[in-house]
Design a protein that fits this description.
The complex is a heterodimer of chains A (273) and B (181).
Chain A (H helix, E strand, L loop, with lengths): L36 E3 L4 E3 L1 H21 L8 H27 L3 H16 L15 H32 L9 H44 L5 H42 L4
Antiparallel strand pairs in A: 1-2
Chain B lengths: L1 H12 L6 H133 L6 H22 L1
Helix pairs in contact in B: 2-3
The chains are: A mainly alpha (273), B mainly alpha (181).
Chain lengths: 273, 181
């Protein structure tokens, strides 16, 4: 553990190689923040990720408000961009998995979820913010929980009590003697493991991405002494490369998250066999 | 005690345990986004997208209607043209028939007039011939009487006798002429 796990900056600014100063490697402490307000020990506090989460909400709303508040049949530039994003999720994700008829109802949820997650991820490379909110498990967990609750509700509503359990456990008479085992596995997989993996997939990607970015950023600074400058250059280039890569991963993970959400909803609506 | 603190610190650092306040904030942040988008912005854009779709389809429908109309007008025009052609042909044949009838009529009329003229000519000739014959008879009678009077030496001016003799003479002449014919 570093001396101060909740420092605002991720590392000491006057620490360089050959100065008898150890490499301040990033770790779990890179994801902990001193509360901006309140006390970390009580459950009443406000920190940087929370601020970014709320700000991100405002950014998403602000963007769509500017684009869709007074939409025109012949769109302006902003409206065109927003429409492209909206249409991409609506057609490419929702209609693709759920169909037009069934899917229409879930378009607002999935669209807002995608852009919310994307924005939360994007904070990772926004100067000064530079922290992906989704690398705190709480944020993906909430979203996965919403999808999970929706999935369970839909399953029971659509199939009734017995039908829902058959759906969840993948009941299929043709399996014969392995049926109980298959049902047990399906039960655990669908009901217990899936929401967890759904959240962790997003969380872990952002967590790892941020760790890598912090690693190369710190290294660039830390190596900036004597012969280390050459290595610092390499590290800095890696920082840029990783930033671009993260830009891609951020959109991809947001996409994967909503695509999975749609697949789960589709599973709930589908006839069990 | 210090061990407990370490455990507590490690627990706080477990990145897979979500802190309650962050869960709440995360939920609030997402609900705000979802709320605004679902309540107002997405219905807004859906309406406009629908309007746009209708506008485009309306344009296509209009174009289709115009095309159909053009097609029907063209067909109408073609029908009219064919009718006009047909009518012209009919008129032409009618005119030909009429012309032929007219020519025939004229021909008949000409024939009739010619015959009339010929008949009139014949009548005229007959009349002239009769008049000439009458005049001739009188002249011939007078000459003959005069000549006979001179020969006989006596005036044969007795009218009654005279005319009887002349008539008898002429009658004989005519009989001879008839016989000679």
């Amino acid at each position: 553990m570093s001396a101060d796990p909740t420092q605002v900056l991720a590392f000491e600014t006057d620490c360089h190689i050959f100065d008898g100063c150890g490499f301040p490697a990033p770790g779990l402490h890179s994801f902990l923040f001193e509360p901006l307000w309140g006390d970390a020990d009580s459950n009443l506090y406000f920190n940087k990720p929370m601020l970014l989460a709320l700000l991100g909400s405002l950014v998403v709303i602000g963007f769509f408000w500017a684009a869709f508040r007074k939409p025109k049949v012949v769109p302006g530039k902003l409206q065109m961009v927003a429409e492209a994003g909206y249409d991409f999720i609506r057609r490419g994700v929702v209609y693709e998995t759920l169909g037009r008829k069934e899917g229409e109802k879930y378009v607002p949820l999935i669209v807002s979820m995608f852009f919310f997650i994307w924005m939360m991820n994007l904070w990772s490379i926004v100067p000064l913010a530079q922290f992906p909110v989704t690398s705190i498990i709480a944020y993906p967990a909430v979203l996965a929980l919403i999808v999970y609750v929706l999935w369970v509700t839909l399953t029971f509503k659509r199939h009734g009590f017995v039908g829902a359990w058959k759906n969840i456990t993948g009941y299929n008479k043709d399996l014969g003697p392995v049926l109980p085992l298959a049902m047990l596995i399906e039960f655990f997989s669908n009901l217990l493991v899936r929401p967890f993996t759904h959240a962790v997939r997003l969380f872990a990607n952002m967590f790892a991405g941020h760790t890598l970015l912090v690693l190369f950023t710190i290294a660039s600074w830390y190596l900036l002494n004597g012969i280390g400058i050459a290595y610092a250059g390499v590290s800095f280039v890696m920082t840029i490369v990783m930033t671009v890569f993260e830009l891609f991963i951020q959109a991809l993970q947001a996409y994967v998250f909503v695509l999975l959400a749609c697949t789960y909803i589709q599973g709930a609506l589908a006839e069990h066999h | 005690m210090s061990q407990l603190l370490t455990i507590a610190a490690e627990e706080a650092q477990n990145p897979l345990v979500p802190p309650i306040p962050e869960l709440v904030i995360g939920l609030i942040a997402f609900v705000i986004v979802f709320g605004v988008l679902a309540w107002k912005l997405l219905p807004n854009i859906n309406k406009v997208l629908e309007e746009r779709r209708e506008a485009i389809e309306g344009g296509i429908e209009k174009a289709e209607a115009a095309q159909t109309e053009a097609q029907s007008v063209l067909e109408q025009y073609k029908a009219q043209l064919a009718e006009a052609r047909h009518e012209a042909a009919r008129l032409r044949s009618e005119a030909q028939e009429q012309g032929a009838a007219l020519i025939a009529e004229m021909r008949a009329e000409g024939q009739r007039q010619r015959e009339e003229i010929i008949a009139a000519g014949h009548a005229q000739i007959e009349a002239d011939r009769k008049a000439a014959a009458t005049a001739l008879r009188q002249d011939v009678g007078k000459l003959a009487t005069d000549l006979a009077g001179k020969l006989v030496g006596e005036s044969l001016e007795d009218h009654a006798r005279q005319s009887r003799v002349i008539d008898r003479f002429l009658g004989e002449l005519e009989e001879k002429a008839e016989a000679a014919r």
